[in-house]
Amino acid sequence: MPERRTIKKARKDKRQGKSPSTQAGEFIHEEIRKIRRGKHGARSTKQAVAIGLSEARRAGVPLRPPRKGKAKASTRKSAEYAYEAGQGKRKPRRRPRVSRAVSQVLKREPRSAASRKALSKQARSAASHRSAASRSAAARKASKTKGSSARSAAAKKAARTRARHRR
After folding, report:
1. Residue 68 pairs with which residues in a beta bridge?
2. Which residue from 29, 56, 119, 131 has the fewest beta carbons nearer than 10 Å?
3. What's the rounded Cα separation, in Å, for the pair 9 and 11?
4. CA 161/CA 35 separation, integer angstroms
């Protein structure tokens, strides 16, 4: 169950016209706080983020589930359920035994997933993944708009840069 202040902050973000992912960020912050306080743990930083996103969807943040091919089927299904529950399209069943089991499992997980080092590493890998995609898109566009001599010059420059970095 999310804290009242988290829901308040998310609603404030919504009023300010911020994106659903920004609103969901409040829930992720709360999850990291819970892990740091020792309420429970997480196997990885990704899991901590996933728990936060699920909480956000259940609390009514209009964060769409990932599209087909972006995440595995079970993750997508889980996100769809949480999204529908939050949007009032599905009545969530109370399952005390499952809830208790999940809580006990999370309590046994390590707390290092919310450390500064782990979070920084996760953010770096996500940023490098995004920048690599935009770089390759830029390269594709450049190859379409440049002539053959300019393309050749760019390739030579890239080869020189790679050689310099190898040293």
Report:
1. 71
2. 131
3. 5
4. 43
